[in-house]
Amino acid sequence: METPPFPTELRSVGVFALSNAPQAVALARGCEELSRALGGLPVHCDCQCAGGPRRLAGTDDSRLARFHALLEAPGRELLVAARGGFGVTRLLDQVDFPLLKASGKTLCGYSDLSALLVAAWDRGCRRLIHGPMVCSSWARGPESPGFPQERDSFLQALQGKWALQPKGLPLKTLRPGTARGPVIPVNLTMLTALLGTPFQPRLQGTILILEDVNEPAHAIDRMLTQLRSAGLLKTLAGAVFGQFTQGEDSEYLPEILQEAAAWIPGPVVAQYPLGHSHPSLACPLGIPATLHAPAP
Predict the structure, then answer these.
(1) What is the pTM assigned to this prediction?
(2) Does the annotation count 277 as an active-site position?
(3) 227, 192 in Cβ contact below 8 A?
(4) Measured between alpha carbons, how far is 77 from 70 in angstroms, rounded to an integer?
């Protein structure tokens, strides 16, 4: 495993909201737990919790201005999303990616935020983690199922101790083989939304990790077929199917994922613990890793 270039020392954390408005109680609790996990580091939050259009955390301009201010703020070496939802793709053509890259700050989030992460990675930004957000993950508290595993996985990713296939992790082989490449975790709906736009990431030779939530089996089938038709799947080094949860007709998912595995030239595994269920493992973007899928 190669160590990701994350900062070895953190002074403070910033919390941002580019999607839906966070709930104030969950935000406060999540910031407290995040601080505790990081040894008491101060966590600074400047998020609009109400009053935005269509449940967003403020107008497009105000959400973006707060985010850019965090990129420019001294300290705040780690920036964690308050929550997901929707709204990030509205901002991508206005995000100052050179500023994000020059800041050297670590960015963490998932779901809607994965669109920002893959667009940033494609533009040369690093120190990106597909990982726990304040309201949807940290606010659950240490007594909730899977919390210790999520916390430890995040800290390992932050400290450069991450591994794609930790020892003892049970996975289902859909296509056997071994491949190496940069790992790119992303929400399937968000990746599909980026197709044909300037923010569609170049994924040739990568190990793609896909997950989603609240999508029926036929929608998963449709989006995977769209990725195939766009020529994306045949360029991958390998693929990992994470959590596909809370969708209708989930009994058809194994068949759909098995069919999709045949469209990918390299190894493919399923049942990877990354997504919207708990625990969900943190995963840094772009870190070279080896995917091994033994023959079933």
Answers:
(1) 0.96
(2) no
(3) yes
(4) 9
